[in-house]
Amino acid sequence: MLEYEQELRGQGKQRIAGVDEVGRGCLFGDVVAAAVILPQGLVLEDVNDSKKLSVKKREALYVTIWDEALAVGIGVVDVPTIERINIKQASRLAMKMAVESLGIEPDFLLVDAEKVDVPREQLAVIHGDALSQSIAAASIIAKVTRDRMCLKWDEEFPEYGIAIHKGYATKMHREAINEFGPSRMHRKTFLSKIVAEQQVLF
């Protein structure tokens, strides 16, 4: 998990930011990205792709990453913006916002399978959250941040079960949309795509 970071530090890069996003494939809610710069020599046991970790483990690592990181930045792009510019561009915008909110200038970006629109050297790493500790740390920060947002959304829209499926297109979620109709937090362009592809009537 430190191979990319060690190679970059060998090239003189010290402030290496891992960048990742969460919520790209959801039917509901904002997309969230995080950027994390970890100190050299730090080894975070059990850090991995956030989706592969238990809730308890993610929460514990979230606290550790905040405590140990040199800098953490978060970017959030809301549903109206996602609808206006499309989810790919919204994910990239969230990543840009996360990098720009770090508070310190990174020397290099390790990004999970994307390019961030900032004037910094960077590398897109396919499945980066399973290959780089920095990207995995960003994945955890973004995931826990968005999951906590989902708990608040669940209080506002209890009929959809957002706290359970986090806005993804589960059977439970699709049935709730069918019964209650979409809320203002649903991505209407995503719903129409599902209707076209699966002929599911919402």
From TrEMBL:
Signal sequence extent: none
Recorded catalytic activity of this chain's protein: Endonucleolytic cleavage to 5'-phosphomonoester
Domain of life the protein comes from: Bacteria
Protein name, per record: Ribonuclease HII
Biological source species: Paenibacillus gyeongsangnamensis
Cofactor note (record): Manganese or magnesium. Binds 1 divalent metal ion per monomer in the absence of substrate. May bind a second metal ion after substrate binding.
GO molecular function, one term: RNA-DNA hybrid ribonuclease activity
Gene3D superfamilies: Ribonuclease H-like superfamily/Ribonuclease H
Residue positions binding a divalent metal cation: D20, E21, D112
Principal location: cytoplasm
